Amino acid sequence: MELEVVGDDEQARLERLLRKHRKTLLALPNVHDADIGFELAGGELTGRLALRVYVDKKRSPRGLRVADRAPDELDGVPVDVIEFTPELQLARDDLHDPVIGGVRIQNVNKPTGGTLGMVVLHRDTLRPLGLSNHHVMQPTPVVAGDLISQPGDGVNILGPVVASDKALDCAVCALGSRASSFDIYGLDPVAGWTFARLGMKVVKSGISSGVTFGVVDGLNSERISVMPGTA
Predict the structure, then answer these.
(1) Cα 79 → chain centroid
(2) Whose CB among 14, 31, 158, 211 lies 3.0–4.6 Å from 186's, allowing a Cys bridge?
(3) Which contacts qualify for 40-47: CB closer than 8 Å, 24 or more apart?
(4) Region 81-99: what's the mean pLDDT?
């Protein structure tokens, strides 16, 4: 839903209530923070203002002592209990296990790395593979049995390049014993595939460019120019 901007007086009133009750709220078991904001219901903001407390894991009120339960409201303002566990976001250059798209990979025989586009499945065997560009995965000239590492440290090996096409500037590598996911750094998980269409909106996640957006404005070119640098 579209949220309305809260007026100065109403926000100041909520801030006073939070200052008044913060110590009591933070003393409740499992509560690690409290703020004011819009109530959440089913993962969606309702537009209703509330005092909000954050817990690592929601528990049934029946399993808590009455004194340990968050009140339904304080001074007429609802109290919303939100399950939230802060997690440190890994960087694109870090080791990712499971392997996801949008993170750094490097051919052990190349001085520079690039971006792993995403995890895909082999059409026949459904084996997970890492998809990237030919110019990222393959040096020139191509070395037989090229190995790809993630991150680009030459130590944490994913596996060899198993197929590549210089004309299409694409390549895939084995992922070895590393777990994998269809997640892409900074984006939602991939849910399927489709053919490109003129005018289609597209998005990518690269180690240098970050998340960028574009539109398909041309198709069926027979030549691809590769510019130096990483995506």
Answers:
(1) 30
(2) 211
(3) 40/80, 40/82, 44/1, 45/1, 45/3, 46/1, 47/1, 47/3, 47/4
(4) 84
> Has residue 150 got a pLDDT over 80?
yes
Q: How far apart are CA 13 and CA 11, in angstroms?
A: 5
Quick one: pLDDT at residue 87? 63
- 135 phi and psi, to 5 degrees? -70, -15
Q: Detail the DSSP E strand segments found in the chain.
A: 31-41, 44-55, 73-74, 77-83, 99-101, 103-107, 114-116, 118-121, 128-132, 147-149, 157-165, 170-174, 180-184, 201-206, 210-215
| CA–CA dist 14, 71 (Å, integer) | 16
| C-beta atoms surrounding 128 within 10 Å | 19
> Is the pTM higher than 0.70?
no
Q: pLDDT tens digits, residue range 94-110? A: 999 999 999 999 999 88
Give 162-181 pLDDT, tens digit per residue.
999 888 889 999 999 999 99
- pLDDT over threshold 60, residue 228: no
- Mind listing the domains of the chain with CATH numbers? 8-83 (3.30.300), 99-215 (no CATH)
- Name the pairing type of β-strands 77-83 and 44-55: parallel
